[in-house]
Amino acid sequence: MISVKEIKPSPSLRPYVECYSYGTYNTNAEPEASLQIVPNGCLELIIHLDDKHCQMMTSEHSWDMSPDYMLIGLLTRVYEVKFPHPVQVFTIRFRPEALYNLFGIQGVEMTDSYQDTNLLFGQVFKEFCHRIREEKNLNLLVQRTDKFLNNMLERSIANSDYILKAANILRHSQIPNIKELSGKVYISQRQLERRFKEVIGISPKKYLKIIRINRVMKLMEENVPMDLTSMAYHCGYYDQSHFIKDFRQITHLNPSIFRKERKDYIVLTSRKSS
Q1: Which domains are seen in the chain, by residue range?
Q2: What is the pTM (predicted TM-score) of this model?
């Protein structure tokens, strides 16, 4: 149902961009296709490459066709998306701190929601998306995206270095608690929690929960021969009940049931990229 290729951005962008992806959802053209997006700790900027779009749930709890270009903010729970036909997209997967560092927008404004990028970023970004949509060569498409985002980075005046460092530590270290994290970035725990929520959109504790659950998801996706208890321990959980509680909060399912129903979910963890 999903055929997607992931590509790494240029090295200068990697602190802010997890990857690009290019491909098609609902490749079998199933008329009632629906998938649940699992929170992955990132934001997804979606550029539809033709007039066939997915359907998204609005704030009024009705289904609407997605915009040509949209940003899905940091999710904290599963989010259903409908694909009434094959949908071809180019996606920029931003790390959450990129929204502030590249565009000057605080993450708290985008949590658990999506927005038309024309309303967020203005005419220059709209023209960039138009050019991406018209580009048929994938290598040139990636080069054009790298160039545009590097220009954005050079012009950016927003800065929150210790939040960038804190988020990176949470992604790559087995940090036991937020008090230890505040010590590593030399900021009081209270100030870190306040500023982290403004920039990223959620508390560092909740972000760490999403990161840990995604580590488990990645092991499931790679079919690592481990039972769920071993996976949980490997990904930073030392209490099985705590792991199950976090997993249910994010996916609304027990881990064992999720593992069986994996095909009904979009798990956008980072894979090996070119």
Answers
A1: 2-155 (2.60.120.10)
A2: 0.91
